[in-house]
Each structure stands twice: as structure tokens, then as C-alpha cells.
Design a protein that fits this description.
It is built from seven helices and seven strands. The protein has 217 residues and is of the alpha/beta class. The chain has a single domain, classed as Spore Coat Polysaccharide Biosynthesis Protein SpsA, Chain A.
Amino acid sequence: MATRRARTEELAIAVFSRAPLAGATKTRLIPALGAVAAARLQRRLALRALAVAQQAAIGSVCLWCAPDERQRFFRAVQRRCRVALRPQAAGDLGQRMAAAFAAHGGPLLLIGCDCPALRPADLQAAAAALRDEAADGPDAVFIPAEDGGYVLVGLRRPQPTLFAGIDWGSERVMAQTRARLASAGLRWLELPALWDVDRPEDLWRLAGFAELAAWRG
């Protein structure tokens, strides 16, 4: 059986992304941006998230793709960034995340593409928490989102119950997850909360990110 030390050496990062298809991504932003600009923003957010994951240099990076890895954007990213591609599973967000943790089996950090405020240092801090070999080290690590969700989840091993019965997309996600963690008797660490871009009222925050500035044109 693998030791705890062996498992920590296998820590990896999963980046969840949708293909930047007009009308099929960033749908809550379409009323403010239009379908084409929303898709363009998704593309730039995905590239930024992947760059941050690779710059953290804490383990292998896999891009988990929706609707599937055969999309032209993902194939181009694979060639450009030399990153592994995997298709996201069917089901709601919780089922898809649970499937990614199950597929990896060991310690894994999972992020989406909605948080341009996420830095390599944040991923490094989360990785350090999962690599903590103290007896009372955390089983899970989170970076909450200011809107009540979370922008990063890291687990030492798969915990499918954390992803079932959650009101995804609501302000209750992190609170419900805390209740699941406590019920399961798990120890967890929360790093400082960050903002993400889900709704039109979040768009003003992008002004300070030069690499995202061209989403309008």
C-alpha cells in the first residue's frame, strides 16, 4: 500500500474549463457582453488559469475539458502549453469534480477559470497544506470565493460526499461544503477568500489585468 509520503509526491493540479464557444459559455455574462465577447473572455480566463497552474510548479497539470477534449481550442492549448487533456465527466459540477478526484486518486488541487486573482503563490500555499505530514494536517484545503462559493479545492484523497447535494452556483456552496466536511470528520484549511467573475457586476474587477483587456475586441 502506498505510504502517505508517496501519495504527497504525486500531487497534481486539475484545471476545469469549458470550450470558449459563443452562446455556450459564460452564459450569465451574455446579457452584458454578448455571446461572442463572453466566449472571448472565457478563452482568456482559461489561458490565464492554465498559466498560473504551470507557473506554480508544484506538480503535473491536467486540463479537464467540457464538453470534451476534442474541441479546437483545447487541441491548440495542448500543443502550445504541452498539457494533458481529459474530458469532464457527465453530470452536474459536483459529479464532474468528484470524477476528477477519483480519476487521480491521490492529492489533487482543482481550480476553475473564473478567478483571475488566483496567483501561483496561492496554489503553492494550498499544496504545502496538503503536503503537511503532521498527524493533525488538513485533509482538505479551500480558497473560498467572496460570493459564497470557492475557487480552489484540494484533497489528499477523493471525498465524493463533499460534492453531492450542493446548490452549485449559489451563495450557499462554501457553507454547505463546510457542513459536509464537519459531518465527515475531516480537517480542512481555508486560505484567504478571492473574488471571481461570474456575473455582470463582477466585470469591473478585470480592469487591472492587461492580458484580459482584449476580451472586448
